[in-house]
Amino acid sequence: MDTMAAASPLREIRSVTVKSVLSRSGISGIDYSLNPYLGCLFGCRYCYADFVARYRGRTEPWGTFVDIKSNAPEVLRRELGRRAPGRVSLSLVTDPYQGVEREARITRRCLETLAEAPAFTVSILTRSPLVTRDADLFGRMPDIEVGMSVPTGDDAIRRITEPRAPAIEARLAALRRLKAAGVRTYAFVGPLLPMDPRDLARRLLGAVDWVLLDRLNYSWKIRDLLQRPGWSRVLASDWLAEVRGAFAEELEPAGVACHYVGREAPPAGAGGGRR
């Protein structure tokens, strides 16, 4: 693996070459995972993806490094010619639109390749409004769907748990812009952090076609935060039901389906492609 490092006290960014970029997915409705980067600089404190570093020889704390898979688009083109058609997720263990993508453009180049392979459909999940940059490409991909992670509607909570991720309202604005352009959109509301669920649900009206809710599964990662007043509520057995009930009451009358992980998960491309 070739490397070219550019380091600072807070982060390390390297350019690497890889032999493969498509990984088989065990998630229902997703056939392949495509991760243009290894690592993520958003630094979400509850992130589950830090296990990847151990298998890639990275010893730095998760959230402080990124490997740019510089040859990913070329490798992807070869792999698409050998793999069975299916649905591709960008991304399961990185954010495809984190800050380095603005200049590296690995995600965009991969999408350009996928746009030429209609047998493969695409689902995107990000926290970054940078995704709107590629709206022109989405217009060439009729079955694409674009999701935004929105685990809370409270930016004070976001600043604690996702210290380098974009503001919540910027994410919602990006969803509205994409939906207005005819792109099928969704919100991944998880892990469920402290929030006013009705307020967030109302803010999602007109921005998404469906939502997916998920509880906090790795509470030990933020055990110090859970000692704060009001935070322990997210561990209560009825918290998911409370949030789901509020979302269903606010969104389903407007035709926005509400699902949650582990039960009633939506099929790939649920509801069709573009409106």
Give a topology summary.
Blueprint: E1 3-7, E2 12-16, E3 22-24, E4 32-34, E5 37-38, H1 51-55, E6 65-69, H2 72-80, E7 86-90, H3 101-104, H4 106-115, E8 120-126, H5 135-138, E9 145-149, H6 155-161, H7 168-180, E10 184-189, H8 197-204, E11 210-213, H9 239-251, E12 257-260
Parallel strand pairs: 2-6, 4-7, 7-8, 8-9, 9-10, 10-11, 11-12
Antiparallel strand pairs: 1-2, 3-4, 5-6
Model description:
With 275 residues, the protein is an alpha/beta fold. It has 2 domains: 1-123, no CATH class; 127-275, pyruvate-formate lyase- activating enzyme, CATH 3.80.30.30. It has helices at 51-55, 72-80, 101-104, 106-115, 135-138, 155-161, 168-180, 197-204, 239-251, and strands spanning 3-7, 12-16, 22-24, 32-34, 37-38, 65-69, 86-90, 120-126, 145-149, 184-189, 210-213, 257-260. The strands form 2 sheets. The protein has an 8-stranded mixed sheet, covered by helices on one side. β10 (184-189), α8 and β11 (210-213) form a beta-alpha-beta unit. The chain is globular, with a radius of gyration of 18 Å. The protein starts with a strand and ends in a 15-residue tail after the last strand. The relative contact order is 0.12.
